[in-house]
Inverse folding.
């Protein structure tokens, strides 16, 4: 291992690919750890959550190495790693989780109590998530490897499906979690807010779970056209601000069984300005009484770039009384990826879910990452997959 390079946050609107230190078997506070592995990164994706930081909408410091969606090959392992070997190809859940605290033992790995001194939950290359170095790089260290990593059973078969399997680290389990928590089942009518990659993954998951109709709402015409091309019902939110009427035009009634918020705190309203609570309020309006809302979209405790003063502290103007009166259920928070990734891996390997096609995966080199961030920020109907060693392109 030598010549590590990674995508570094420079400041609002700017990232650079720079030489960075080679990973070591040590924690963010410098302690030697033996439960970790070092990976040669095979693929690593640009995520909408990364984009929030790059837009300057968080307190992320300059110099942060980005990237929490990682697939890689084990090239070194600590003495305590027993279930993995050098040469194994693995998927990395974006959650950093110890596997032994109370929340991890309950399956809530998104809020591990042991990997972040500031708050529950850890992640790679993300602000306030424990200081773990990101994986939009050539090499990366992964702690608690036996617990966290999902080994692919056959390397050649996995590489043939790598454009699909790279989505297991985050967006596919995140979309699936949103659909599960929204109560999607056979025959469900479903509304997904947001036609970006997570929204498309949620819609695909709803279909996998048996939904009869899956609608996706957005203002972005290119993204809506892509959603239609892969079999979902596009809802053009630019037509007017009565979501119930738009839903009724598809299913005959102004309500759905399940709703999924894949937008998060940077949501825009019909008038064009930011309205961080607009999606959640719309979910409450269109979800049937006794239904559920899954919220995989990102919300933050601090948003220094918010248009509303309250939103700068993470406070939103919710119509909570409406949700209460309809007996709605809500589920928020980071997805516990290990709860779903093995089952979803099999769905991908056995051709049940063409997720790379659904999210329009576009493979680019590591050095092209700044262009990928720029295009994604403009609303491109694509999921950018970085290929640090050219292995994804070679497999294709």
């Amino acid at each position: 291992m030598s010549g590590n390079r990674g995508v570094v946050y420079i400041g609002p609107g700017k990232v650079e690919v720079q030489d960075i230190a080679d990973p070591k078997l040590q924690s963010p506070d410098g302690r030697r750890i033996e439960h970790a592995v070092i990976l040669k990164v095979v693929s690593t994706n640009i995520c909408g959550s990364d984009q929030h930081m790059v837009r300057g909408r968080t307190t992320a410091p300059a110099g942060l190495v980005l990237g929490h969606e990682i697939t890689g090959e084990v090239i070194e392992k600590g003495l305590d790693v027993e279930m993995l070997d050098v040469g194994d190809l693995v998927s990395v859940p974006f959650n950093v989780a110890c596997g032994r605290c109370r929340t991890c033992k309950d399956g809530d790995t998104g809020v591990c109590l042991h990997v972040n001194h500031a708050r529950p939950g850890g992640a790679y290359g993300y602000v306030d998530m424990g200081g773990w170095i990101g994986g939009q790089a050539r090499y990366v260290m992964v702690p608690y490897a036996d617990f966290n990593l999902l080994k692919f059973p056959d390397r050649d078969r996995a590489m043939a499906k790598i454009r699909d399997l790279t989505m297991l680290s985050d967006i596919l389990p995140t979309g699936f979690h949103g659909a599960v928590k929204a109560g999607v089942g056979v025959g469900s009518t479903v509304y997904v807010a947001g036609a970006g990659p997570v929204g498309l993954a949620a819609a695909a998951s709803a279909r996998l779970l048996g939904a009869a109709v899956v609608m996706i709402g957005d203002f972005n015409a290119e993204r809506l056209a892509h959603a239609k091309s892969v079999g979902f019902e596009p809802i053009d939110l630019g037509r007017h601000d009565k979501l119930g009427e738009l839903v009724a035009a598809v299913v005959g009634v102004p309500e759905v069984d399940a709703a999924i918020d894949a937008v998060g705190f940077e949501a825009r309203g019909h008038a064009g300005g930011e309205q961080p609570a607009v999606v959640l309020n719309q979910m409450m309006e269109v979800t049937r009484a006794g239904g559920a809302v899954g919220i995989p979209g990102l919300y933050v405790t601090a948003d220094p770039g918010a248009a509303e003063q309250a939103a700068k502290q993470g406070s939103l103007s919710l119509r909570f009384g409406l949700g209460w009166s309809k007996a709605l259920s809500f589920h928020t928070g980071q997805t516990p990826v290990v709860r779903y990734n093995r089952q979803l891996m099999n769905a991908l390997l056995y051709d049940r879910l063409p997720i790379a096609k659904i999210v329009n995966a576009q493979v680019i080199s590591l050095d092209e990452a700044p262009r990928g961030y720029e295009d994604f920020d403009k609303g491109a109907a694509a999921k950018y997959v970085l290929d640090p060693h050219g292995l994804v392109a070679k497999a294709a």
Observations:
- The longest helix spans residues 197-208.
- The CA atoms of residues 224 and 234 lie 6 Å apart.
- The chain has two domains: 5-170+336-395, 173-331.
